[in-house]
Amino acid sequence: PLWLARFLHIPAVSVLGAQILLALIIVFSLLAAAGILQRISGWAVAITFGAWMFYTQGYGYVAHDHMALVIAAFVLPTIGAARFRDVGTASARAGWALRVVQIAVVLTYFYSVLMKWIASGNITHWANGAVIIWALMRRGAEWSKPFLEMPGLLIAAQWATLVFEFLSPVVLFLKGKWLYGAVVFFCLFHLMTYIALGIHFLPTVICWAAFLPLEKLVPKRFAAR
Predict the structure, then answer these.
(1) Among 164, 166, 155, which residue's Cα sits nearest to residue 114?
(2) 102 and 210 Cβ atoms separated by less than 8 Å
(3) b (16+ CB within 10 A) / e for 58-79
(4) Mean pLDDT over all residues of the chain?
(5) Which residues are listed as membrane-spanning (predicted)?
């Protein structure tokens, strides 16, 4: 990200600049959510949030949990404004945008396996290593400390993590209860890592909503207007 920021001649971040940028993101997000000048405000969110990512991710560790949210910020403005009365109306643009977000969500996990492989040189070295032990020692909650005495269980958890991350693209082909079960599984996984390690993965968790029929939550009295 730092090279791309230099290529685009994005100025270095300052405290005041970051505060102004954050305020703009909030204002434009509220306008876009309210459907006010939706395309303009939506693209403004994409641009300002993209700049925010350059600053937060361009000087060191890159948090891959933001990938799906960044992509969502850039594809949602292509849909146009949506109203409660649009419930039940088919939209190719909306379907395309949701599918792109869904693909970005599952690739977050699939690419994670590839990066583990590249970083370790051998995926079995990562799976049989002390990754979770190191994480628990470094930032684990007090209740999770007893697991340090169970290295075999932690190694099994690492193998399980690799398996479901590698198989994550399967979610794109699930429907009904199987799909909802997969969404719940991944969200519970992130809840567990947050409770145990303080790692929340919230941007990706939010984007899992792209797999859910949220339009069914709209009260009929609003949809009829």
Answers:
(1) 166
(2) yes
(3) beeeeebbbbbbbbbbbbbbeb
(4) 88
(5) 12-33, 66-84, 96-117, 123-141, 153-172, 178-211
Q: How far apart are CA 52 and CA 81, in angstroms?
A: 24
All residues at 6 or more sequence positions from 96 whose CB lies less than 8 Å from its CB, including other chains? 75, 78
Residue 140 and residue 199 in contact, taking contact as beta carbons nearer than 8 Å: no
Residue 165 CB contacts under 8 Å (≥ 6 apart), including other chains? 109, 110, 112, 113
Which helix (H) or strand (E) segment holds residue 108: the answer is: helix 92-120
Say which DSSP state 9 is in: T
For residue 61, what pLDDT is reported? 67
Give the number of other Cβ atoms within 10 Å of residue 45's Cβ. 24
Which token pair is 145? 């400390």
d(CA 108, CA 202): 13
Q: Look up residue 93 and give its amino acid.
A: R
46 neighbors 29 (Cβ within 8 angstroms): no
Distances in whole angstroms, Cα of residue 87 to Cα of each of 77, 99, 213, 216, 219: 18, 18, 11, 8, 10
Q: Residue 205 has which token pair?
A: 């968790």
Do residues 148 and 137 lie in contact, with contact meaning Cβ atoms separated by under 8 Å?
A: yes
- 145-172, pLDDT tens digit by residue? 889 889 899 999 999 999 999 999 999 9
**CA angle (174, 179, 181) in 5-degree steps:** 140
How far apart (Å, rounded) are the C-alpha atoms in residues 142 and 109?
A: 27
Which tokens belong to 181? 């079960």
